[in-house]
Design a protein that fits this description.
Shape: globular
Distance between the termini: 36 Å
Structural class: alpha/beta
Number of strands: 10
Oligomer: single chain
CATH class of the domain at 2-88 and 157-229: Alpha Beta
Radius of gyration: 17 Å
Strand content: 25-35%
Largest sheet: 6 strands, mixed
Order of helices and strands: EEEHEEHEHHHHEHEHEEH
């Protein structure tokens, strides 16, 4: 059974239609890559899934429960962890305090930072008392992912995690995503423009263009040239 089912959704910003009849599935233990150039609707799709923007038509289901009309905080409590584009960590809070903001979606008994966060990103353990704003871009990205993992998500959404990140940290993030997939406890949606990173990690893929999904399928059926055509400027 799919952890996430997006079924024929439309989304508008005023009179402008950002998403048109978009469907997407993400399964436990698998990485679904959403690919496309800037401005084709990838982030709008993530906003729809996380409840940051209301859809005009269609349905969004988490573990076969409709969440289409739920506010974003209720979706978080159900197990949606979101790492937004640009990271959005709190620069004046320490690393420890940033991680603890993930407690908001958890019952009191679960309000601890899992050891897994520091196993995946040891730098965060070394910098617990450093302010978030003092970290490098790559370290902030690891912190943003760690914060989402504090929520024990069943669905983890990563919106362009490689943007502006140095190659060594990109490799660390790739290894972390692979480990999370192998554990089989969450579905992962990876939004990317960096084709090689997404191709190496994904199990299934969907390519967006002009607010629609124009290519999709299993990694084994992917024709690289067709996908790259929709990524080139």
């Amino acid at each position: 059974m799919a952890q996430l089912d997006v079924i024929s959704i439309d989304l508008f910003y005023g009179a402008a239609q950002a998403l048109r009849d978009v469907s997407l599935t993400a399964e436990l233990g698998k990485v679904t890559a959403v690919l496309g150039r800037n401005g084709v609707g990838k982030t709008s799709l993530m906003r729809a899934i996380t409840g940051q923007h209301t859809v005009a038509a269609g349905d969004i289901r988490l573990a076969d429960q409709s969440i289409t009309s739920m506010p974003s905080y209720e979706r978080a409590r159900l197990g949606i962890g979101f790492v937004p584009q640009g990271r959005e960590i709190f620069p004046l809070l320490t690393v420890k305090e940033n991680l603890e903001t993930g407690f908001a979606a958890l019952p009191r008994a679960q309000q601890t930072v899992p050891d897994l966060v520091f196993e995946l990103f040891p730098v965060l353990a070394d910098m617990k008392q450093r302010r978030g704003g003092d970290l490098s871009g790559g370290q902030q990205q690891q912190l943003a992912i760690g914060r989402a993992l504090v929520m024990r998500p069943k669905l983890l959404i990563l919106d362009e995690p490689t943007e502006g990140i140095q190659p060594s940290v990109i490799k660390d993030i790739g290894r972390a995503i692979s480990l999370l997939r192998e554990q089989g406890e969450m579905a992962i949606v990876l939004v990317e423009q960096y084709f090689d990173f997404a191709r190496d990690l994904c199990d299934t893929y969907a390519v967006m263009d002009r607010g629609q999904i124009v290519l999709s399928g299993d990694k084994a059926t992917m024709i690289e040239a067709d996908v790259r055509k929709h990524l080139s400027v």
